[in-house]
């Protein structure tokens, strides 16, 4: 679980990065160690030569000579003074000298090459090292030594460096891990725990997080979360109240629709009354009852579950527009229509089709056409409600226009929002809300195309290409 946590991964990454940085300095430090090691052997060789030169006859016993060479860790010592090479101390070399390294003129490339060779290929050679004596002790000093001792020292130094790097990496990672746990993971855990507790009971006000972190970023996150949880609590309470109100409204609408149906049956008798005043008022009462009953039915329909997915077919738009006209204008085919009334015009061209659910598209156009007729009748205007259609690129555009007074500003601000004002006076906006929902289910939209004092126009835009039916294949059956 450590590797999957944020703090655990940071611990490992920190250790890895520290080791990487140490590795970048590892090779130069080993090369530097090699040079220091050789110079130290030359310094020891010079001290050993001074011990010899301090004797009266420049002679020491064989035992002392071996002791000096052993202390200097070299095989022999040569001192160059006054343009002469003098063998100061010596012991039999195991074999001839394999290579010579002059530290006075050695460049960086030669240093790296020799250090790499010693580590990679072993140090079984005998080498000669030349350097400058300290404090003007001669022109040069030479020492012969076994390369194996150099390799052992370099390996021991490298292991110490690696061990020290590992310790530094782990300590650095551990400190960062502890700091991360203290200043980031623990506050985040508190926020996560609060979110879990809040999800269990969002309506409990005590479960709203109280910002208290000393870290500015975490405190800002807690403050934002507290605001979000508070807004969510308010939204849930409002949703619960709306659900309860909607349930009560559905019951009231159901009972009211039954009462209005009875009132409609009784009001039908008013049209045959001999009293001219009653006969004149009767149709108005009937129309008002019809609108009230339609509003109750729309409220009940809107309160139902989500609309089913559309079953896409190829719909002949002119035939569908005719059906809409028959529903919205049931008296349009009478022998002598009333003069000065509202007329229906089907301007959809023959042969134009659209992939849609015929029943749902029928409901969309009925809602729009009914709103258009009611707007004109309420304003006392005559004229026509027109349904036209055309194909535009990859879409099919259907327009329902009227010659009414247009939509008031308040209605335009709340279009397609249920219970916040409709397109007609006294409406609840359910027809437009349902029409917009059905159009979205088809991948299209309903929008207000124009609204002036000379009339309004609503535009329905649908994809012209075939859409898949729920069975996974486009349904090509005609709805006409």
TrEMBL record:
Name of one Pfam family that matches: HisKA
Membrane topology: Multi-pass membrane protein
Species of origin: Albimonas pacifica
Ranges that cross the membrane: 157-180
Coiled coil: 218-245
Protein name, entry field: histidine kinase
Main location: membrane
Record localization: Cell membrane
Reaction(s) the record says it catalyses: ATP + protein L-histidine = ADP + protein N-phospho-L-histidine
EC number from the UniProt entry: 2.7.13.3
Keywords (A to Z) from UniProt: Cell membrane, Coiled coil, Kinase, Membrane, Phosphoprotein, Transferase, Transmembrane, Transmembrane helix, Two-component regulatory system, Virulence
PROSITE patterns reported for this sequence: HIS_KIN (PS50109)
All copies of domain Histidine kinase, residue ranges: 251-466
InterPro entries, A to Z: 2C_sensor_his_kinase, HATPase_C_sf, HATPase_dom, His_kinase_dom, HisK_dim/P_dom, HisK_dim/P_sf, Sig_transdc_His_kin-like_C
Gene Ontology MF term list: phosphorelay sensor kinase activity
Top-level lineage group: Bacteria
Gene Ontology CC: one annotated term: plasma membrane
Origin organism lineage: Bacteria, Pseudomonadati, Pseudomonadota, Alphaproteobacteria, Rhodobacterales
